[in-house]
Each structure stands twice: as structure tokens, then as C-alpha cells.
């Protein structure tokens, strides 16, 4: 009887530990992830520092709080991705598709967006350099389908 009681208690402790244990963010720092399909994945708070994600599919992924510090996202598909609060500083989004992405509150001071598609992207409260913002304003158009915000307005583009 005692043995079964102890087994029951241990099982209960194990179940509770699994239920309340803190989730650990995924770490992909410095990984070569060229062409990997992360579409629709929940990658909140993952670390992709200095990772190579060229031509990867991150469309409709939950990327809130993710670190893409100094990562290569050239020609990556981020259509409809949620990048709220992400660290994008020094990341390269050259030729990337950010259509309908939400970047609200992201830190992207030195990110590169040359030839990126930003139709409907929401840049509300994104920290960008003035020259990058001016570059993005030249091609900014559309309305984000989730937030309802105009891309040009979220970038504070002049009329």
C-alpha cells in the first residue's frame, strides 16, 4: 500500500512540475537554417542571433520577442508573421517578404530592408534609423489585415 502511495505522490509531483515548469526558448544562434520551413510555428522568444535564415519560410509564425540580432533573413518569407517586440537590430531583410507582418515595438535601428516587400506591414513604434525609414516610405503601401493600420502611417511617412 505504501509503495503505491509513493508512486502516486511521485506521479502527481511530476505532473505538477511539467505543468508549471518554465518554458525554455528555442536557441538557433549561429545556425545555418537556409530554406527551413518555420511557417505557422510558435517561436516566441526564440534566439536566432547571427543565424542564417536566407530563403526560409517564417510566414504566419509567432515570432513575438524573438531575437534576430545580426541574422540573415535575405529573401525570407515573413508574410503575416508576428514580430511584436522582436530584436531585429543588424538583421538583413534584403529581398524579404514582410507583407502583412506585424513589427510593432520591434527594435530595428540598424536593420537592412533593401528591396523588401512591406505591403500592409505594421511598423508601429519600431525603432528605425531615419535613412532606413525614408527608404521604406518610398515603397510603403497597404493596410495590415490584423491591426487595420496603414503601413505609411505606422512608419510616420510624410504625405
Can you put this structure into words, describing what you see?
The protein has 159 residues and is an all-alpha fold. The protein has a single domain, classed as E3 ubiquitin-protein ligase SopA (Pectate Lyase C-like, 3 Solenoid), CATH 2.160.20. Helices cover 19% and strands 0% of the residues. The chain is built from three helices and no strands. The radius of gyration is 20 Å and the shape is elongated. It starts with a helix and ends in a 5-residue tail after the last helix.
Offer a concise description of the structure:
The protein has 159 residues and is an all-alpha fold.
List keywords for this structure.
3 helices, mainly alpha, 159 residues, 19% helix, elongated, single chain, Pectate Lyase C-like
Amino acid at each position: 500500500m505504501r509503495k503505491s502511495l509513493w508512486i502516486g505522490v511521485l506521479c502527481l509531483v511530476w505532473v505538477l512540475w511539467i505543468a508549471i515548469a518554465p518554458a525554455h526558448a528555442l536557441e538557433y544562434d549561429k545556425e545555418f537554417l537556409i530554406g527551413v520551413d518555420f511557417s505557422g510555428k510558435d517561436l516566441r522568444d526564440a534566439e536566432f542571433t547571427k543565424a542564417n535564415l536566407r530563403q526560409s519560410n517564417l510566414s504566419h509564425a509567432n515570432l513575438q520577442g524573438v531575437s534576430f540580432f545580426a541574422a540573415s533573413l535575405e529573401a525570407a518569407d515573413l508574410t503575416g508573421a508576428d514580430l511584436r517586440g522582436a530584436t531585429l537590430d543588424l538583421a538583413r531583410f534584403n529581398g524579404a517578404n514582410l507583407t502583412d507582418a506585424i513589427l510593432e515595438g520591434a527594435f530595428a535601428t540598424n536593420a537592412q530592408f533593401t528591396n523588401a516587400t512591406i505591403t500592409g506591414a505594421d511598423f508601429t513604434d519600431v525603432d528605425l534609423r531615419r535613412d532606413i525609414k525614408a527608404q521604406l516610405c518610398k515603397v510603403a503601401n497597404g493596410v495590415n489585415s490584423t491591426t487595420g493600420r496603414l503601413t505609411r502611417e505606422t512608419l510616420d511617412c510624410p504625405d
